[in-house]
Amino acid sequence: MSEGTLYDKVWDRHKVTRLPTGQDQLFVGLHLVHEVTSPQAFGMLKERGQEVAFPERTHATVDHIVPTGNRDRPYQDEAAESMMAELEENVRGSGIDFSDPDSGNQGIVHVIGPEQGLTQPGMTIVCGDSHTSTHGAFGALAFGIGTSQIRDVLATGCVAMEKQKVRKIEVTGELGEGVTAKDVILTIIGELGTDGGVGYVYEYAGEAIEDLGMEGRMSICNMSIEGGARAGYVNPDETTYEWLKETDAFADDPEEFERLKPYWESIRTDDDAEYDDVVTIDGSAIEPTVTWGTTPGQTAGITEPIPDPDDLPEEDRDTARRAQKHMRVEPGDTMEGYEIDVAFLGSCTNARLKDLREAAAFVEGREVDDDVRAMVVPGSQRVRDAAEAEGLDEVFKEAGFDWREPGCSMCLGMNDDQLVGDEASASSSNRNFVGRQGSKDGRTVLMSPIMVAAAAVTGKVTDVREMEEVATV
Amino acid sequence: MSSPEFSDGEAPAEKVTEVSGTGIPVRGNDIDTDQIIPARFMKVVTFDGLGQFAFFDQRFDDEDNEKDHPFNEEQYRGANVLVVNANFGCGSSREHAPQALMRWGIDAVVGESFAEIFAGNCLALGIPTVTADQEDIEALQDYVEANPDAEVDIDVAEETITYGDTVIDATVHDAQRKALVEGVWDTTALMGANEGAVRETARSLPYVPAEHIPGDEA
Q: With contact defined as beta carbons under 8 Å apart, do A444 and A427 qualify?
């Protein structure tokens, strides 16, 4: 059993009691709510005649179904409109803060929490969304829950959970040019597998992680779940504190910042902490990495060959064969040169200001390939506004990208932003499952934002390092 | 332990000690929740009616013609024990996935391994997720295919799966087993009983202001 890790400490601070099931009852410090997984939970609450126990520790936004084009109400999509109306009614009747589109604060739930300072170190954070692991970047214990658990949290302010093991993933060395946090996490999932993290929480550490800004750390923690780990975190440090200082929570209240800092420091993993497992990965050896298959664990460095299923462990062979057939790729080839029809820059993994800046710096002075439909979907209204203030929207538009309103968009195809037929996409999102982007014949290649930008320009998967003037921001 | 009570007088969660019925095999590792219920069917505000969309894109082509899939086959109508392989239910946290399976008729899922959020979501619905070795699972899938009308018995308390003359040693995760066997899987009721201790924990956390704790506002 682990001891002295951030996970152990935050767990202990939030443990209410041991339940008769053997699970622990944990207090939830922040409950984030969105429109897709919450309506049934509010419904169950009403059926039981209960009210939201901690409305002030709850925050809502709309992201999954919200249109990224015309947002006039009522939405053209009746189903989307009814979900939005339901959320409005549920939150307004319960006294829950709502970052709705009129507030200027709307966005993907895992983008708005950190940017508003709702997300803080040492908190327990839950949301009915598996990418809640994102918030672990701040040293929070954050994980996705199902709708019945949302009901639990609404009704009691708590979740029932069993403690998990802790695996430290140490990424050593410096990342090379053109290599980003996204490449690190795709490499980790490729090495440990999509179920390698089941039963574990991931602690990301090491020089390559410490050198990352908060955006990069969020990209990594975000995809913990793709590696099977329900939660992942990075210990808070000066990089974390610099971000927090600028947020709504502390920008005008430096005293509150100083008051909470000792708590944040106290929950950092001890130097002599014990882990259940430790894995070391050489960060300097990581290449720009993409997926070749239909699970996020089917990855290869851009210069690496796609594996022969017969060379894989027996349990992975069938999945690999089916994936290669679906993607129309051959073992031995690299993904470089794989033709794409769509370039999607967005999602809770990679739609923050830094992601947009890096992609824009690459795109500036270049043009989207004639055969590619390219779109940028900023992670939030604030990201969008900040990007526009810097003129990034003009850079993208001049290059031929569609510049859209924030939401989950083509990551999961719940609004109009979808692949059509067997289109192939270069996508900065997190899942390449069959059908994920809205078409069951669609083909998704996951990659970093700058790799998406490069693919948009050339019309095929491209090693960004081979393009001239790779700009880093 | 005091039995949970709801304000509207609803009964506490029922005990799930065993599940019996006919089986249905769905083969393949890493079957994700996008496959179990595609996102477009989640544009709803209730779970009612999700059953018909279970595995929809695996079952129908673009023209809505049926494809080969166990959920389309007449012989498995009425089956309630789903038999799957490894890492079943990975991906999104959507409870719509087990809800769709449950509303199709599934009462228990047996497999090599399950994604955690999926297993937790199943438990919240009183659906056991029972694991066994790869060989045993594949043998059970073969058996169910050959004998779609034969009964499969899952004993949650004893952690066994019985079919024909065979008894498989299975595993039901400790907390899940306890919750199902003792009928304490309704965690809202369980945790609701500890209101005072919850407030105390909240008060001990430096980031939770008193005005956010009901009853402490003054």
A: yes
